[in-house]
Design brief:
Helix content: 40-55%
CATH topology: Undecaprenyl pyrophosphate synthetase
CATH class: Alpha Beta
Strand order of the largest sheet: 3-4-2-1-5-6
Bound molecules: 3-methylbut-3-enyl trihydrogen diphosphate, magnesium ion
Structural class: alpha/beta
CATH architecture: 3-Layer(aba) Sandwich
Radius of gyration: 19 Å
Shape: globular
Number of domains: 1
Largest sheet: 6 strands, parallel
Length: 251
Amino acid sequence: MEPLDPDKLPGHLAIIMDGNGRWAQQRMLKRIVGHQRGAETVKMVVEQAHLLGIRHLTLFAFSSENWSRPAIEVRALMTLLKKYIRQETARMMRKNIRYNVIGNRGELPDDVNQALNDAIAETAGNTGMVLTLALSYGGRQEISMAAARVARDVAGGRLKADDVTVDVFGSYLDTGGLPDPDFLIRTSGEMRISNFLLWQLAYTELYFTEINWPDFTINELHKALADFQARERRFGKTSDQITKRSDPLNA
Ligand code: IPE
Ligand code: IPE
Ligand code: MG
């Protein structure tokens, strides 16, 4: 396995977990079997991220657009989600992990929301990793809803239009209070963002792998993190400014 520098891990790792359906179809299995196997990969990644000391792990589990899938698949995904939350909460407690959810909770079935509320409440005092699940989440929806809230606050005199800075606007997003992702992994070979964290990914390092999510292993995770560690994040500066930070002439 690739050696990792513990001081250069992403503080916030985000993952678009893709390829469950294809994984199953390639094996003549039903798509839901792929989702079930994908849930096993989720357990592994949560465990590894926790062991590595990553502070924030954000997983794209169900998009706003995924509601357009066949009803039977949507229903199976919701059932799987509820089962996962209920089963894993005890482990989250042992690992001091806190649950967080972003997305349009109002669109989720009541029983899923109940399971989420219970898990969020139970883990609320945990101080270790924050596990954020993006559910019924779409970046454009999140941004437009935040804009509506900003507009309401301006209209109500609680906020001045001139005070709407990048930071203030960011605080109106579902992710208000979370740092931006440092690293984004997408599995299954698709090279797109699919409406995930559009605002927050502005300076995130992106990583795409052909591996389907159920086949994503510890080794693949370490390989991805090693790739992240080899990158130079410049945030618009020159390479010299980044590498010679201690040299005042180059600052
Ligand atoms: C990702 O796998 C899981 C969800 C989007 C819920 P997919 O179900 O998208 O798998 P593919 O892309 O069809 O293979
Ligand atoms: C993105 O995957 C959403 C999740 C992983 C939950 P999709 O499979 O829905 O993305 P597209 O439609 O192929 O872009
Ligand atoms: Mg997909």
